Every structure is written in C-alpha cells, then in structure tokens.
C-alpha cells in the first residue's frame, strides 16, 4: 500500500464494522471504542463482517483520508481473539494485506545486547 504519510502506529479494530460508515463514523469508533485519538497520525484499520473488505482511516495533518481495499475471491485473515493485540508492526500490516495470518506469523526473537561478550 502506497501512503502519503509515515504511520507512527497501526491499529486494528477487531470487531467487524458496518461498511456504510464513512470518515465521521469510523473516527467516532476510534475515539469511543478504541479510546484513541483519530488525529494521532496512526492508521486505523477496519474489516467488514465478510472479511473481504478493509477500510483504513488516518489523519494527514490537514484532513482525514479513507482508503479501502476489496478482495475479489479471498478473505483477509483477520485476528478474532480478543486477547490478541490490536497494534501492528509495519511488517505485520504488509503481511495482512498480502493474505497471511498475522496471528501465526512471527519473526526472529529480538535480542538486545549491551556488549559483544554477552553474545558469546
């Protein structure tokens, strides 16, 4: 997905959303249900009940943008467990758009060393 902004954060709304909602309705969901600011510069991603459509809402410093994607034959692998975090990395976001199940995909464990001798 080509965007005009560098997203600081990416959040999924886990429950399906009525896709008749436009910018104002989705911004209200961000504030009331997700308890986040729609003006934060983050991407807010919503899925329909059929899991074949996504809407992405973001603020680009002078107004809201709304992006939509519709799959013709497949469904998004949308996380359904409430315990699963709603925040995504940029890599997970690209995996989701490419059709991968992001709840099952994990990269290598991140290691943070303070010196070379610790890794030996």
Summarize the structure.
This protein has 120 residues and is an alpha+beta fold. The chain is built from two helices and five strands; from the N terminus they run E-H-E-E-E-E-H.
Distance between the termini: 40 Å
Query: If you average the pLDDT, what whole number results?
Result: 84
* Strand residue content: 15-25%
Please mark out the parts with pLDDT under 50 across 5 or more consecutive residues, or reply none: none
> Main sheet: which strands, in order across?
4-3-2-1-5
Largest sheet: 5 strands, mixed
| H/E element order | EHEEEEH
Structure description:
It is a single chain. The protein is an alpha+beta fold and 120 residues long. It is globular. It has one domain (10-119). It has a five-stranded mixed sheet with strand order 4-3-2-1-5. The model has no long low-confidence stretch (mean pLDDT 84). It has helices at 23-32, 90-98; strands at 10-12, 43-47, 53-59, 64-70, 87-88. Helices cover 16% and strands 20% of the residues. β3 and β4 form a beta hairpin.
Keywords:
120 residues; alpha+beta; 2 helices
Topology:
Layout: E1 10-12, H1 23-32, E2 43-47, E3 53-59, E4 64-70, E5 87-88, H2 90-98
Parallel strand pairs: 1-2
Antiparallel strand pairs: 1-5, 2-3, 3-4
């Amino acid at each position: 997905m080509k965007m005009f902004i560098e997203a600081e954060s990416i959040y999924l709304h886990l429950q399906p959303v009525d896709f008749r909602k436009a910018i104002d309705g989705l911004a209200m969901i961000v504030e009331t249900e997700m308890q986040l600011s729609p003006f934060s510069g983050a991407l807010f991603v919503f899925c329909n009940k059929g899991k074949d459509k996504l809407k992405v809402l973001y603020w680009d410093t002078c107004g809201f943008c709304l992006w939509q994607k519709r799959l013709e034959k497949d469904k998004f692998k949308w996380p359904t467990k409430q315990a699963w975090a709603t925040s995504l990395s940029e890599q997970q976001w690209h995996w989701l758009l490419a059709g991968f199940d992001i709840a099952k995909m994990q990269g290598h464990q991140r290691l943070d060393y303070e010196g070379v001798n610790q890794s030996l």
